[in-house]
Amino acid sequence: MKIMVVDDSSTMRRIIKNTLNRLGYKDLLEAADGVEAWEVMQRHKDEIGVLITDWNMPNMNGLELVKKVRSDSAFEDIPIIMVTTEGGKAEVITALKAGVNNYIVKPFTPQVLKEKLEAVLGISD
């Protein structure tokens, strides 16, 4: 199972990927915005198991990406985690209505990412 990490900040992508590596997830894909993410996802349709995306990005933001992903039958059931600085109640509700399965507000700890990922994958201790 591949995990797709989408963030316009290369530093944030590296932090998320390093955290995922420490949690045992080695098969990772990455993109700098929603447009690039969509292109990568089209090439790996049957392989991606989780999408972790930022909200605020150029070209196609995370919310637009989530809506596009949810409109494609190949990805309608993929777990999506939104990682963003937008922590207000209205933003969380908007993201959930768009089809996000879980939500992480930056800055976050590796433990928070682990818990949210395990929650969307149905893994329990």
Automatic annotation (TrEMBL):
Response regulatory domain sequence ranges? 2-121
The chain residues annotated with the modification 4-aspartylphosphate are D54
- Keyword Phosphoprotein (UniProt): yes
For whether the record's keyword set contains Phosphoprotein, the answer is yes
> Which of UniProt's keywords are assigned here?
Chemotaxis, Flagellar rotation, Phosphoprotein
- Report the protein name in the record: Chemotaxis protein CheY
What cofactor is needed? Mg(2+)
